[in-house]
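Hi C.,

You asked whether I'd gotten around to modeling the 166-residue construct. I have! Everything is below, sequence then structure, no commentary in between.
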Amino acid sequence: MAKKSKKQQQSGGTPATVALTAAGTAYTVHSYDHDPAHPSYGEEAAEAMGVSPDRVFKTLVADVDGALTVAVVPVAGQLDLKALAAAVGGKRAAMADPALAERTTGYVRGGISPLGQRKKLPTVLDASAAAHPTICVSAGRRGLEVELAPEDLRQLTGAVLAPIGR
């Protein structure tokens, strides 16, 4: 996980929630007890919060033509790597090495947030997000989610909206 400043440690915030607060964005934090034995971080979050899996989005890091790129897709589906590459003008995409994704974003796998990353990466948000008034994404650690308007997420991350899920 990303290093926390003294202020973050005292407030219990993560870099993601600190970024949301600093931007003045409306959001709701949802916390749940993470079960390390659960086979899917995203499905676990949806179940624990009682939210439809099509409103809970996972943050994946891929390598598109040698450049790390963030993909935010519903936990109910999968990332279409060809569509992700096309969305950012690339030719070929593959999932990034998990250790590299952790080092670059400052978050641990299963807790990678599209917000407050150590290094700002190109981001693509699945177009299905626009169908919901709010969506949930990781708040920067396992067992912690933030709910916010998809347009707020798009603006804060500079994301492209494209059909990258299947």
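If it helps when you're writing up: Strands lie at 28-31, 57-64, 67-74, 93-95, 123-126, 135-141, 144-148, 160-162.

Thanks,
B.
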